[in-house]
Amino acid sequence: MTLDCIVLVAPRSGAGQDRATVIDLADGKLIVVADGAGGTGGGAAAADAVVDHFRTLASTRAVHDARDLVLELTALDAGLKRVGQTTAVAIVIRSGSLFGASVGDSGAWLVHGDRFDDLTGNQIRKPLLGAEEARPVGFEAIFAEGTLVVGTDGLFKYARIAAIGDIARGADLGRAAESLIAAVRLRSGGLQDDVAVVLARPA
Prior knowledge:
The protein is built from five helices and ten strands; from the N terminus they run βββααββββββαααβ. It is an alpha+beta fold. The protein has one domain: PPM-type phosphatase domain (Phosphatase 2c, domain 1). The longest helix has 18 residues, at 43-60. The chain is globular, with a radius of gyration of 16 Å. The termini are close together.
């Protein structure tokens, strides 16, 4: 399965605390999005640690299903205790399907036709990773068509639902990602929060 993927991160100021990446696997892709909690201290470091963890995971061992990703996030919850707190979404895409796990208020939508599926609709928002009480939730879906939108709350909190769907259906994936960031900008051009977004679509 060949995927087109676009990653964009727009900090509100400075380096920001949102992180997003797409990691190549032997048989697919691994998407990771994390939003460090600014009010707890160490949020950026915690988000970086999530990305680093999954980069290492991708090069050392295989994950087979959503339960494996739930276990990885649960392990991170304890490991981040002295670092900081963060949300996380991790999704593996392979062979026309996907599975993932999430915690916090970052999200993943699968947009297809005139509707969307909120893959992370059942996630538990608090406690975050690093609080040692996080409860990651797994999910899975067929992904043979449509567009996968994975992002932080800087996108999902401030963009209209209909706008996200309309933009994600656009033919040019790169332009769609830029338009999603534009959709949450203030008239001044600034942002109310950091924004990270990953778009993926079967090629």
